Amino acid sequence: MKLSLPADSRLLTPEFIFGVATSSFQIEGDRAGRLESIWDRFCATPGKIRDGSNGDIACDHINRWADDVALIDSLAMDAFRLSLSWPRLMDEQGRLREQGVAFYRQLLSALKARGIKTFVTLYHWDLPQYLEERGGWVNRGTAYQFRHYADLVSQALGELVDSYATLNEPFCSAFLGYEAGIHAPGHQSQQMGRQAAHHLLLAHGLAMPVLRQNAPHASHGIVLNFTPCYANTPADQAATQWADEYFNQWYIKPLFDRSYPACLHSLPGSAQPVVEAGDFDIIAAPLDFLGVNFYTRQVYRSDANAPYGHQLVAQPDAPHTDIGWEIYAPALTGLLIDLHQRYPLPPVYITENGAAMADQLVDGQVNDLDRLDYYQQHLLAVDSAVRAGVDVRGYFAWSLMDNFEWAEGYLKRFGIVYVDYRTQQRIVKASGLALRDLSASRRR
Ligand code: FCB
Predict the structure, then answer these.
(1) pLDDT at 444
(2) Which of 13, 223, 291, 425 has the smallest number of CB atoms closer than 10 Å to its CB?
(3) In terms of DSSP H, where are the helices of 114-220?
């Protein structure tokens, strides 16, 4: 099966960027080559990871990076989105670790030598554990540590990076990590979650001018995830809007409007983040691009007795992926148009989109037609948003290959390339072949 788009689609123009995405902790392995991160600690805590696994080896990318670069090239990808491991790059005294720098220089150079654009994320959740011991993202000082890390690293990597994203999905770092407790470091406190979110955004804003100065030819931005919120009845509308503000707008509104959404005022005073004078001016640093990660939507109904005043409404008749997320591509079009109408957006990249599916390796092949169909629907959804006037410049599949899926361990496969974890063999799935063909067809 093939992926197809209307012949006049902007996604088919040579300027449009097709890429694949990964993150450091999920693929690199080589636990010995870096300091401990909050995810190492979390994995070592019984009961936190569904299959009891960790990131010690993962996809062994640290040893197989050259083959992985060749793989990305063989998939006709224009760009590779990767993240840098802070605990690989920095020591506890705030100095660069030369071995870590050498690894990324080598990797980025190999990508550039093949003409593959390098989209680098500075923070994809693997905070050094020593910073967590000083309070992690609840400690305002961590934002300044991040600026320091961004400064040294962007100097060290020079011109090897085409695009810097400060953070990946601060919602997940703050809410899942400090408020819901299902991600590292596993705290369960609304106050901590809201304060962590503020300090993450502050870290982003502090780093932006530094990146701009050190890498003047690169473009600089942030990657946010969105799970659009839907209500079935007017009576559920207010609760749904509150959820949208709390889970989605909280992370984007300050970037443009220099304030948090109105739901802030419904929170107990103790849960409202401490914001210092001038913080919003730092946070609202101009962006060259916005990265949008999209997987699914959520339907809400009002329930005054529930925590946060709402309940999720399951959609049992709708299709779902293997991780239980509803497949609903129109939400991606709707999201992009909505963001475009609300905010003065810079160019947008879909920095993650993809699906976990129950892949079967049969006779050395993975015929993942379900994932392929997901990509088909979502590429069309992006095309529709572009036609409606949203300036989308690129699309990254999550993920290049199956990898460590956080609290799910290795149980959920998101790759367009299958990884046999016993042998570390990579096998391109049908979806990967179809994305390759789509991307290659567009280059001619
Ligand atoms: C996103 C993360 C990414 C991956 C996908 C499935 O929230 O950014 O690392 O785990 O979900």
Answers:
(1) 59
(2) 13
(3) 129-132, 140-157, 170-171, 190-214
